[in-house]
Amino acid sequence: MKLTIRALLGACAVGALSSAAMAETTITVATVNNGDMVRMQGLMDDFYAKHPDIKVEWVTLEENVLRQNVTTDIATGGGQYDVITIGTYEVPIWAKQGWLEGLNDLPADYDIDDLLPAIRGGLTVDGTLYASPFYGESSFVNYRKDLAEKAGITIPDAPTWDDIKAAAAAMTDTEAGIYGICLRGKAGWGENMAFLTSMANSYGARWFDENWVPQFDSPEWKAVLTDYVELLTKYGPPGASNNGYNENLTLSLQGKCAMRMDATVSAGSLTDPAQSEFAEQVGFALAPDMGLGKRANWLWAWSLAIPASSDAKEASKAFINWATNKDYLALVASKEGWRNAPPGTRTSLYANPEYAALPFAKMTIDSINAADPTNPTVKPVPYVGVQFAAIPEFAGLATGVGEIFSAALAGQKTVDEALAEAQALSVAEMTAAGYIK
């Protein structure tokens, strides 16, 4: 047991979480190695000053590894972690399984009503909040304004995919080490398939029809994968099939990506002179469309949750309240400026004049508000979710499809071969799971 002193307390401690009750409590926090999460670990002195009786041990992992480890642990009731970093996909599925602790009893200063409705809704099941958002995001295009000017092009605030193709071609300068576009190529349901599913939405493609029949044999999906492979093969960096969120962000911070489409959460880093010498040259645009009524903008929140198997739930709630409270945003701002405050979770952040004045603030909130998980595609679908389908089978299936598409990007198979393989895999999986009769 981690709560070594609680057993010694008498009945007088019931109903109150005294500092004595919290003594010698150690919690293990599993998180992703994204910049905002790493920054949080550097601010722990503030947490320890407020909670000297709680010790935090960190397990920081790459995105795909984190998902695998956390999923295995919670599904088996392993109890390895007290606080886990999970996304909008897992929360409703895991909550319905009884795997997560409810968070409706967080202190009043947490201010649950300040959470953005779109983000809060994705983390709530039957009126109970099961995860607290650390940051929320959609997706957008970032580009170097100096390179666009040099190439004699203008990237519209609301571009089409044709605009993106033309810009990528015009700004590519391989001799200078400048790549026209950087997109996720690393296999994973939350890596290349998050991007490709969002791209597919804008092309009129979908994962399944109304009867759960996979649609990779459709002309829309062929157009998606053909354009994706062509963009990265012609204008992307070498080894694009190995690049995920972090790799492409690093290339952008180094000025090597003339243009990139990815998560809005990266805007703070891109415009921070301490992280990029091109910070003053960064422009932003909405995720592109094909004129069909849907843009390629997703909706996601990395959130903190407590497994039902944790034996340190009260200490874990204290940590979650600290890490996702409005005071934490102000703490980050006091240390590193408002541009580095975790975005996309709270209405009050976007009402703050200092934050609202940042060049990416309005586009981020507009993109988040425009994403519609209940109506993500041009054609009708039986699932909820923008860059995923909120069914338990999706993570495994989409990771398999992601590996196939990553291999196509690497030149190991043709687009037609990849689509046929993805269709066969998806039909087999959906039939075995009972979705297809």
Brief descriptors of the model:
single chain; 437 residues; alpha+beta; D-Maltodextrin-Binding Protein, domain 2; 2 domains; five-stranded mixed sheet; three-stranded antiparallel sheet; 10 strands; disordered N terminus
Strands, helices and their partners?
Blueprint: E1 25-32, H1 35-41, H2 44-50, E2 54-61, H3 63-75, E3 83-86, H4 90-96, H5 117-122, E4 124-125, E5 128-129, E6 132-137, E7 139-144, H6 145-151, H7 161-171, H8 192-203, H9 219-235, H10 245-253, E8 259-263, H11 267-270, E9 282-286, E10 300-305, H12 313-324, H13 326-336, H14 347-351, H15 353-356, H16 361-370, H17 394-409, H18 415-432
Parallel strand pairs: 1-2, 1-3
Antiparallel strand pairs: 3-10, 4-5, 6-10, 7-8, 7-9
Helix pairs in contact: 8-9, 17-18
Could you explain the architecture of this structure?
- The protein has two domains: 6-137 and 300-355, Periplasmic binding protein-like II (D-Maltodextrin-Binding Protein, domain 2, 3-Layer(aba) Sandwich); 139-297 and 372-432, Periplasmic binding protein-like II (D-Maltodextrin-Binding Protein, domain 2), CATH 3.40.190.
- The longest helix is centred in the C-terminal third of the chain and has 18 residues, at 415-432.
- It has 437 residues and is α+β, with helices and mostly antiparallel strands.
- Helix 8 (192-203) packs across helix 9 (219-235) and helix 17 (394-409) packs antiparallel against helix 18.
- Mean pLDDT is 93; it is low at 1-22.
- A five-stranded mixed β-sheet has the order 2-1-3-10-6.
- The chain is 40% helix and 12% strand.
- It is built from 18 helices and ten strands.
- The protein has helices at 35-41, 44-50, 63-75, 90-96, 117-122, 145-151, 161-171, 192-203, 219-235, 245-253, 267-270, 313-324, 326-336, 347-351, 353-356, 361-370, 394-409, 415-432; strands spanning 25-32, 54-61, 83-86, 124-125, 128-129, 132-137, 139-144, 259-263, 282-286, 300-305.
- Strand 4 (124-125) and strand 5 form a beta hairpin.
